[in-house]
Structures are given as C-alpha cells and as structure tokens.
Amino acid sequence: MVGEYVVKTQGGKRQLIINYKGASYGADVAQYAACMHDVVSKLREVDADEIVLTEYYERIYNEEQSAMLRSIADLVSKFESESVWAPSNLGKTSDSRSLAKRHDAVMNFLGLLPGDFFKAYLYLLQLIKEEAARNASLAPEEQEDISVFLKTLDFLRGEMEKTVIIQKMKKYLVQLSEIPTDRSIYHAFFEAAIKPSFIGSRIFFSGIESLQLVDEYEIAGTPIFIYRHPEKVEYMYYINPPEYTLPPDKYFLLEKTKEVVSTHRPTTVSFLDMQQARRYFGKIYTATIADLAQHNQIVLTAEERDQLATIVSRYTIGYGILEILLSDRNLTDVYIDSPLGQKPIYVVHSKYGQCQTNIIFSEEEAKSIVSRFRSLSGRPFDEAHPILDFDLPDLQTRIAAIGKPLALDGTAFAFRLHKQTPWTLAQFLDNNMFNSVSAGILSFFVDAQASMLIVGSRGSGKTSLLQAMMQEIPQNLRIIVQEDTQELPVPQLKRFGFNIQRMKTRPPLGAQSEAEVSAEDALRTALRLGDSVLIVGEVRSTEAKALYEAMRVGAVGNVVMGTIHGESAYSIWDRVVNDLGVPTTSFKATDFAIVAAPIRFKGSLKRSRRLIEVTEIGKYWNEDPQRENGFLQWLQFDAGKDNLELFEKNIEGSDWIKKLQRNRGLTYDQIWGEIRARAESKQYLVDVKRKYNLPKILEAENSIKAHSTYMLMAENQREESGGVDYPRLLSQWKEWVNGNLAKPLMRK
Predict the structure, then answer these.
(1) What is the pTM of this model?
(2) Which of 73, 277, 694, 704 has a 20 to 30 A CA-CA distance from 510?
(3) Rounded to an integer, what is the distance from CA 535 to the centroid of its chain?
(4) Contact, 239 vs 290, CB < 8 A?
(5) E strand map for 426-528
(6) What pLDDT is attached to residue 526?
(7) DSSP-assigned letter for residue 233
C-alpha cells in the first residue's frame, strides 16, 4: 500500500523504509513537497538513522540527510507542544479579527514547515519584517500587544536557525545571486543514493572530489576507478555499475521483468553448468524486456535491451553485485566482514594491494547469496554448521563463509580468485619473483623427477608457483592431482595437452559428507592408479604419512610436488615431523624445499612476491637437520639486491646431484648446461614479450608450446648425436619462437 512503512535494522542502523509505488507524487523529498511532508510526519512517529523511499527503485538518504529531516520533525513536534498558535502567544488584544489573522499566519507557517522548510523560513522572515514595520507606527499600548506576537515569531525563527539545515542553507544562499523560488535549493542537500529496489547492496561516491584518480578500466560493462586517498594508506576501488545510474523508465522495466520471470521454472531443460543456464535465461529476459518495453511504449535500442537483460541475470541467476568483483581478475581476494552493512567491502588488487570499495553489502543480499551457495555446494550453513567452504567453478573462486556462533557479529565472507590462465615460470620471471637461473633450476628439478614441497604463507604465491611448475612436466607423463579445494587449473591444463586425473577429497573445514573421501584414503588410491606424477594441492594432515611412506619406498617413481604452509625448510621439517607425525627418516624423502614469501622492501606497505630459498634436504642426518647440516642451500634471497644468490660451491657437493649423475649418466657440466639452457629459454620469452609488447607469449598456452618444442628439439639431438649441443639447440629454438609464436601474436 502507498505510504506503508517498516523500520529495519541494517548494519546497526535503523532504516525507515516507505513504499511510494503507485503514489501520485514521486519518492523524492527534494523534488516533491508532499513526499517531504509525508517523511517528516512519519519521523514524528518513529526514529531512524536512514530513510529509504521505494518505488521501482530506491532513494536512500544517509544519516546526515536523515538527521536534517528528523530535525524538521522534532521542530514541528516542539511547536505543537508549545501551542504556538494559542491566543496567549499571539497577543494581548481581545480583538478576535486580529487574533484570527495572526492565528492564520502561524498555521500557514506550520502547514508549510513539514513539506517546504525553506519556504516556511522565508515566510516567517517576511512575517516578522511586516509585523516589525507595523509595530514601529503603533501607539505604545498597541505595541505591547503586537510584541507578544513578535516574541512568538522570534521564538519560531530562533528554533529554526538552530537547525543544521537552515545553517547550511544560509551558507549556500551566500553563493547564489538570488533566492530561489522553487525547490531547487533542496537538491543541494537531499541528493539521495539511488539503486534498484531488488538490489540489497548500495554504493557511494561521497568525498570523491578529494581523491586522486590513478587508474580506470572496465569489467563486465562496469567502469572501475582506482583512487588514492590523501589521508589513507590503502587505495580506493570504486565501481559504477550501470544498474545504479539508469533512468526511471528502465528501472520500471527491470522491476517488471524480475516480477514476470521470478516464477519461471523450466521443466524440459536440464543445465549442465552456469554458462548454459545464463544463455537460456538470457534469452527469456531479453524477450520479456522487449515485450514490456513495447507494451509500455518505452523505446529501447538492442544494446540497451541486452544491457537490461544482463542486469536482471546478474541479480537472479547470478551472484549480484559480487559478480562484478569476482569477474575482475586484477583482484586476488574479496573480503566482506561482519556486521554487514556497516563497513565497505575490501578487495586485494594485484597492482594496488588492499583497497576499500564503495560497496556496502547488506544482510538482505547476504541471505540471498548464502542461499545460492548452499544450493550450489550441497552443504548446510547454519548455527550447527557455521562454516561453508567450497569452490565456485564458473567464476574460478574459492569461497569461505562463516556465521554465528563462530562469527559473533553475523555472516562474513572471504573470496579467493584464481587466475583465469595458469601462471608460468616465464611470467614469474617477468614479475621479478626470481631470476632466470632460478627458473632454469626449478624447470630442471621437474625434469629430474625431484620430490618437492613448495613452502610459503597465505598469499606468498606457492599454489601459483606449483601450477607453473606443473607445466614443466613432459606431456608424455600422466599426472594425478589431489586437492580438497579446487585451486589448480586442471581443466585448462587438459586443454593444453596434459593427461591429468584430478581427485577431490574431503574439505578440512565445514560440514562434511560421508560420500567424500579423506585425503589419506584418496592418496593411497592415487598410488594404485598406475605410473603417474603426483601433485598434492596442499599437505595438511594425516595424508602426509601416506605421502611420505609412498615416497620413501619409491611407490611413486616420478615427480612428487605439493604445497605446505611454512616459512623455511626448517619450519616444514618441524611441522611435518612434530605436528603431522611423519618420522624423520621418512621426511628425508623430500628432495627440495622451495620457499616463497611476500616481501615488504624497506618497510614499504606494498608486498612483492619473491622466491626466497631453495634448499636441498640431505639424507645423512638423524635428529635435527639444521644442527646436523642436513640442509644444503642452493639459492638464498638478498632483499638488499632484490635477487637470489646462487651457492655454486654448495651445489658441487650436492648428494642429489651425485645421485642424478649415477642414475642418468650425466656429468656435472652437462647438468649445468641443461639448467642454464632452460634458464636462457625462459629469459628469451620474457625478452621477446618486453621488446614487442607481447604479454600473451608468456601465457600458459604459448609457454607450454615453447617448452614442449624445446624438449622435442633436445630429444632429436640426443637421438642424432647422443648428446645436446645447447648453443645450437637454443639458436634453433629461438628461431622457432620468433616464427611460430611472436610473429602470429604481432599480427593479432
């Protein structure tokens, strides 16, 4: 019903929500006196921090604006309680005509006050001016009569001038050449935030004039702006979605379309994935919008129709405002902390670090998105199960949601965005995570079937480094990937020619299904699936024992790689042995610990990913590898030089190198020849990228082709001459890169 209202608490703030759908005037206190009058009347009945006026879209008046409106309501109530129209406040005369005239003047003022505060103030000033002029020409006994009325008028003026709204209006009027006769002055103080009524979250642009724009781009049809704040260490990440800036007729179409299609449930179509569902419903929404526009005589271009269909899809079968953020692959993380509705969403940008957004995520939106997540994951999320942890395949995002009683202030979210294309060693080299020699060493470790743990804290890049090293595996080998959360880009690697079988294990957090297999059982199964490279997404718990047991007895017989949380070779020995219960003798099956970390150079707030350590795990120690010289450092990061130091003298005494020489019949020089050739090949791709501005040449699709060609050319030389001539190999390979990768990319 028109004029009905409710009061809801959102983010700790009381919101007065009034329905104006079907009203004879618009839901805008600045433009319509009747609307302002109605809002002020309701504020006399209830208290609210914010005011939301709903039609086909919502106008949201913030705390400052709502406080100004509430001050008008308080003033009306005060004047009524003081009975300012009572005869005793109008004069001492017994002349009923004079009193009636003054009574009418005060009532006219009070009638204007709720709907046109400024006009009421001007009316009052004019009334005081006229009565003061009349008073000057009256006899003393008549002046005493009118002074009572003037005192009442002065009281009304004084109370009005105490309000913030009149104080602001006075300052504003100084800047104008003339006093406005219409309601234009209200637009300076009551410009509401606007959003579609079916969207729970809201965005803001307050204070944008003081920000410095440092970058802008577009994601999913939405402009993205990166600002620097003069008083904050973090950047500001502002979005301006089209759904927040549409004209009223398009909001009408959005609302009507959502109403029409909300009950549509296809009975003859089964959806294999979200993309298929989006295509199906996109056609439904497009046709519905076109029909509604024609029926309501609203002119739309094809582009506008498609835009509206995309918006409806985003808030029906999609993920709402979050979909824009999760589509921005410049972001690595999105954080929504509780209590919802109080603080903006935070994001972590790959270039600008942690940024504050201009998005306030509401409890209403959270309930909707949680319902979607429960449906997609098939897992519960309630007070008995306050953790929901799963992967969102269509947006390549890992989701962690927590609720009460674990999260005291209510539901909170953390989203981890995976890179759409796998990281490559060449890309890490281009981003200074390590130098070319390090890239050659890592590539060679994979070729030499070393067992490796990639070590680091959250955000250090260890999973990204693992997926880059997987691309160095020869494509004639089968790979088995075991993960509890799907972070490794297995589908992409399959498309690039790798033979991969992935296994999903029981997640470590949240509700668990009896049908899900434990990591330990899955690992034992993987060892029975034939000769394969074994990749363990993350070594967390009891599966570590099974993994090391297999490695120790040679049950894998191929490359073994996995990630683990830690900060050094010693820290993972301590964790694997003392926390996960793996015997020290079994831990020795690890050949190398490869450690990555985010570095804050010279105390800078910016974090840069770096490879900080490559350490060989020796085999001839008994209790403590650090005390018994069981660790042999190959590479160590020097922050002062921002480079990795290579310890060639250490490597000369490497037991792993000696074992490799025995098993493969290679000399020490031949091993280093291979390492340096691989290093030069990675560096050459980076050089070509930089010289010709070809970032795509470093992407997985091209990097894998380049590496496979390198290995084929090397193998041909071995078959022809029994060895590899690395200068000739690199010359031929570079010529191939120039003709088969660089030139086609330059033509695009």
Answers:
(1) 0.74
(2) 277
(3) 29
(4) no
(5) 451-456, 478-483, 499-504
(6) 60
(7) S
Identify the pLDDT of residue 217.
96
Q: Can you give the three-state secondary structure of 683-714, one letter per residue?
A: HHHHHHHHHHCCHHHHCHHHHHHHHHHHHHHH
How far apart (Å, rounded) are the C-alpha atoms in residues 741 and 726? 21
- Pair 427, 536: CB distance under 8 Å: no
Mean pLDDT check: name the lowest of 12-21, 277-286, 404-413, 702-711. 277-286
pLDDT band at 555 (very low <50, low <70, confident <90, very high): very low
Quick one: tokens of 421?
């294309």
- 359 CB burial (10 A radius; 0-12, 13-18, 19+): buried
| Distance in angstroms (rounded) separating the CA atoms of residues 224 and 238 | 6
- Residue 505, sorted as left (phi over 0), alpha (psi -120 to 50) or beta, turns out to be beta
Distance (Å, whole) CA 712 – CA 475: 11
Single out the residue of 318, 230, 247 nearest to residue 282, CA to CA. Answer: 318
Buried b (16+ CB within 10 A) or exposed e, 466-501: bbbbbbbbebeebbbbbbbbbbbbbebbeebebebe
DSSP string of 540-553? -STHHHHHHHHHHT
Report the pLDDT value the prediction gives residue 531, as an integer from 0 to 100: 67
pLDDT digit string (tens) for 322-381?
Answer: 999 999 999 989 999 998 888 899 999 988 989 999 999 988 888 888 888 888 888 888
How far apart (Å, rounded) are the C-alpha atoms in residues 242 and 57? 13
Which CA distances in Å does 294 have to 242, 280, 288?
A: 22, 22, 10
Please report, in angstroms and rounded to a whole number, the separation of the first and last CA atoms in the chain: 59
Residues 6+ apart with CB under 8 A from 390: 373, 376, 377, 379, 398, 399, 485, 507, 510
Distance of alpha carbon 393 from alpha carbon 221, whole angstroms: 22
Torsional class of 488: left (φ above 0), alpha (ψ -120 to 50), beta (otherwise): beta
Among 154, 149, 160, 142, smallest CA distance to 102 is for: 149
Query: Checking DSSP bridges between strand 499-504 and strand 478-483, what pairing results, if any?
Result: parallel
Question: Do strands 353-357 and 50-54 pair parallel, antiparallel, or not at all (unpaired)?
Answer: unpaired
541 contacts 582 by C-beta, under 8 angstroms? no
Q: Output the six-digit token pair for 75.
A: 């003033």
Single-letter amino acid, residue 320: G
Instruction: Report helix, strand or coil for 416.
Output: strand
What residue spans of 496-641 are helical by DSSP H? 519-526, 543-552, 569-574, 584-587
Residues 132, 234: Cα–Cα separation, whole Å: 58
Distance CA 287, CA 285 (A): 6
Query: Which amino acid makes up residue 83?
Result: S
Residue 418 DSSP one-character state: P
How far is 344 from 434, CA to CA, in rounded Å? 35
Q: What is the b/e burial string over 86-108, where b = at least 16 CB atoms within 10 angstroms of the residue's CB?
A: ebebbbebeeeebbeebbebbee
Number of H helices, E strands in the chain: 25, 25
